[in-house]
Amino acid sequence: MARKKRRTKKSMKEHKTEEFGKEINQTSLIDTVSESLVANIIAGLPIASICAWRCVGKLFLKLISENWFTKLYAEISPYITVVIHNNFGVHLVEFAKGYCQLYKSVIQIKKAKIAGSCNGLLFILIPCESVEYQSPFTCFSRSHLYLCNPILGQFARLPEHNQKNYSWDGKRTEVYGLGFNTRTDNYMILRISTPVNPPHPIYKKRSEADVLIIGTNTWKRVGYLPYPSNQGSLGDTVKGAFHWLFYNEMKNFTSLYAFNIEDERNYQIPFPPNIGNGKVNMSVGILNNCLCLFDNSHPTHFDIWSMKEYGVGESWGIKCILTASIPAGICKSTLQPVAALKDDGIIIKSGSGNFYNYDQKNMKFTRFEIDNVELKAESNYLAVHWSNFCAVDLMSIGCVLVTEVSEC
After folding, report:
1. Which residue among 13, 43, 67 closes a domain?
2. Do residues 94 and 372 make contact, with C-beta atoms less than 8 angstroms apart?
3. What strands lie across the sheet with 99-107, from one edge to the other?
4. Tens of pLDDT, residues 307-350
């Protein structure tokens, strides 16, 4: 009996030595090879490989969780991660020149809706009542709100907005945006709510804007926006601000508006020259960290306007995609630029559910091959978001994690 006990103690000692040896090996690796060199190697890998690295040990997980690593990845990685939301769920797809890989399904609840994205984090809504889609608006009364880190597979439940704080308690259209305040190092959610068919015109002239600082439990009213957003999501931020288009039916005038996160003010952005003042067939986006307008108003070409110097109207530059260069079978009116590749290509989604790499130099479309039936049905696409790599632990920004995302 005593001999058996000694063997048990010996095995425990050997186990501890083995674990200690693993820890020493990890530490020695970081010490031997400089941290910056290791970071540069990891940042050049696909997301699936990076996620495998985080299983190696806490030191590597700590490395890829640093904010500076996220910035490094954005600078040197040849890969672009796109989050696709359709009726089958939410998916991560990774793109590069001549490369496309469906990485993982983030969430499989069909009612889930991506309402915003920032630095690789996703803001997700799950409506609790019947959802009425009035493109480009989404009308609903109450939803479960979640913040998600798709890389780490983390979810955090967020506090719902108090419906009693509205000046009008009828049906409303709601748009959201997820942003990051560089002044306070806080993530925040902007919510813009506009009445639908109110009894008095005064309610229609202004939208109520509220902000939730991630890590707190309180929504704060930040004012009344003079013009409501006319799109389903505020998208990503440029220069610390959300941007959207608004068409004023009374004045037959289209304007480009912005809301700055840090000082909580809204302002107007000058339009590119020679664009009509009436209703235009345009959308707002981001390419190469520049504010962009995608103009589909012309039958012979698709225009991409980029603001090279933020806020300066004279800095708008234009790139034209000729209709003749678009492959047969693709409807020009359904083209949606998603993100810019490092080789000067542009990832463009078509209405058929396919993704293309547009070579700006040779004016040529090349289709990415995605072997997944769920990503190919035109009617299933609800939103496509560009996303950065982010391994930030949601608990580190004040969130309480949940083990599952439940439907209402």
Report:
1. 67
2. no
3. 99-107, 89-96, 80-86, 381-387
4. 999 999 999 999 999 888 888 877 887 788 988 888 789 999 88
Q: How many domains does the chain have?
A: 2
The whole-angstrom separation of Cα 405 and Cα 146 is: 8
Taking residues 107-111, report their average pLDDT: 69
How far apart (Å, rounded) are the C-alpha atoms in residues 218 and 213?
8
The one-letter code for the residue type at 347 is: I
**Do 184 and 262 reside in the same domain of the chain?**
yes
Domain, as residue range, for 281: 78-397
Q: Which two tokens stand for residue 326?
A: 């678009």
Q: Does a cis peptide bond (omega within 30 degrees of 0) precede residue 136?
A: yes
pTM, whole model, 2 decimals? 0.80
Percentage of residues of the chain with pLDDT beyond 90:
17
- Token readout for 51 is 């996620």
With a CB cutoff of 8 Å and minimum separation 6, the contacts of 288 are: 306, 340
**Cis check: omega of the bond before 270, within 30 degrees of 0:** no
